[in-house]
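User: Show me a protein chain along with its predicted structure.
Assistant: Here is one chain, sequence first, then structure tokens.
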Amino acid sequence: MKHTRRILLSMTMMAGCGLIVLPHVAGAQQKPLKEQIVGTWMLVSSDTINYGSRYPTFGANPKGIAVFDAGGRYVFNFVSSSLPKFAGNSRTGGTADENKAIVEGTLSHFGTYTVNEADRSFTLRIEGSSFPNWAGTEQKRSFAVTGDDLTWTTAEASGGGSAELAWKRAR
């Protein structure tokens, strides 16, 4: 009888603990997308898809950061891990080939964003960009957040085609 009571007491305690923990876990999963996207994200991959071909936009080991703040501002910076150093050691004194490599191997922009919960997208209002054609434009991206992973698609990538990006939440 004591053994049965002990088992019942243990099961009751475990069930009680589960009731305390489950609402917290469920609540974390029910956060609005706007809250889930807020934070700092480090680039895992950025692939361009163009005419049926897929290639890494910024090389094999791209570097990048995306920051979404709670107030609706964002900043993105992408850099190829294989950028050449300038022989003249001056940012403004690069050769034509050095400058071309930098333009092809970097992209940054900033501005404001809004999240559309219904279609799981965010819209960027780009205020400034290293690709000047994007400054002053609005762009919509479909996205998904799963735990510490963020993915999105850029329908019209800056180099042509579309782009698929994967990010990991910075710790």
